[in-house]
Design a protein that fits this description.
The complex is a heterodimer of chains A (119) and B (107). Helix content of chain A is 0%, strand content 55%. Chain A has 119 residues and is mainly β. Classes of the chains: A mainly beta (119), B mainly beta (107).
Chain lengths: 119, 107
């Protein structure tokens, strides 16, 4: 069973860069798409972007100028960097993976990690 | 970009009720639509993919239908564990938009 686990600082200062890593266990990161999603407190889900294991990416246009998603296949991990953060970036951040080859729906999710932007 | 709307945004229902949630896309997305259930403090859970395919392990009281721009999620007989927020997501374009969500609460 594929499992995902987010890790990274829970507190980031305004104007700094938020960095999170998602570790995939129980399966290989290769051949699949991997996504980041966030959810501000009390609000809905916002898709941030995805990366294919080969390194190709696609991002939400509203965040594109500040987002970088990368992958490290040797560690079975993928990562999120969000620059120039403000209080509006405070959210629970989830990593997720596609259900299976040929089906892009997000069948596997991490438990989520709360990142607060505050000085 | 493709936008998704959901209706209603809030729904109050009783155990045993039949519940229908609608998701509309701003342009045609074929059947590239998924439904998720999210309970407070938990990650979303995939219920339905490809508009109408039930994810393994999901009770058969959940069903999905539709194609193009209009989709529905139906719960045939609402159970206590179904009180949650439901989101649709389109995967047609390479921007995987979520709908705003529908909260199903106890009447």
């Amino acid at each position: 069973q594929v499992q995902l686990q987010e890790s990274g600082p829970g507190l980031v200062k305004p104007s700094e860069t938020l960095s999170l890593t998602c570790t995939v266990s129980g399966g290989s990161i290769s051949s699949y798409y991997w996504s980041w999603i966030r959810q501000p407190p009390g609000k809905g889900l916002e898709w941030i972007g995805y990366i294919y294991y080969s390194g190709s990416t696609n991002y939400n246009p509203s965040l594109k100028s500040r987002v970088t998603i990368s992958v490290d296949t040797s560690k079975n991990q993928f990562s999120l960097k969000l620059s120039s953060v403000t209080a509006a970036d405070t959210a629970v951040y989830y990593c997720a993976g596609q259900l299976r080859l040929g089906e892009l729906s997000l069948g596997y999710w991490g438990q989520g990690t709360l990142v607060t932007v505050s000085s | 970009d493709i936008q998704l709307t959901q209706s209603p945004s809030f729904l109050s229902a009783s155990v045993g009720d039949r519940v229908t949630i609608t998701c509309r896309a701003s342009q045609g997305i074929s059947s590239y639509l998924a439904w998720y259930q999210q309970k407070p403090g938990k990650a979303p859970k995939l219920l339905i993919y490809a508009a109408s395919t039930l994810q393994s392990g999901v009770p058969s009281r959940f069903s999905g239908s539709g194609s193009g721009t209009e989709f529905t999620l139906t719960i045939s007989s609402l159970q206590p564990e179904d009180f949650a927020t439901y989101y649709c997501q389109q995967l047609n374009s390479y921007i995987f938009t979520f709908g705003p969500g529908t909260k199903v609460d106890i009447k």
